[in-house]
Amino acid sequence: MKVLFAICAVAAALLVFFYWSRRFAASPVVNREVQTEISGHGFTLEVAETPESRARGLSERPDLDQDRGMLFLFDRAGVYPFWMKDTLIPLDIIWLQDGEIKDIVTLQAPTSTLFTPIHMPLALANAALELNAGEAEKLGLKVGQRLELPR
What we know:
Elements: H1 2-26, E1 32-38, E2 41-48, H2 51-56, E3 68-78, E4 82-83, E5 91-97, E6 100-107, E7 118-119, E8 125-132, H3 135-138
Parallel strand pairs: 2-3
Antiparallel strand pairs: 1-2, 3-8, 4-7, 5-6, 5-8
C-alpha cells in the first residue's frame, strides 16, 4: 500500500511539474522597460525583477539590438549565477553591487543542449546587466567603475 501511495505521489508531482513547465514556456513574460545612459550611449533595458522574468532572461531570442539589454534586479546582495540555456546570442554579463561593477564576463551561446555551464560572479551583487557580447569592452566598462542604472 505504501509503495502504491509513493508511486501515485511521484506521478502527481511529475504531472504538476510538466503542467507548470509547459505553462511557463508558453506564457510570454512582459518586462517593463527603462531608458538609461551607459558611457554616453543610450540604452533601453528590459527589467527582469520577478523570478519568472529572471529565469527566462534573454533565452530563445534570435537577436538583441545594439542599444538594448536586460537589467536583473535582486532583493539583496548575493551570488547570482547565470547560465545560457536556450540562449541564442552571445552576451556580456556585468554584475553590480549598488551600482559598482563587480565582475564582467562574455558568454557565448551554447553549442550543446547536453551541457550548459553555469557562470558565477566573483563577488556579491544585487543587480546584473546583460548586453550584446563585446559591448562592455566597446563602452570601456571596468571592474570598480560605477554605473547609475535605474531601479
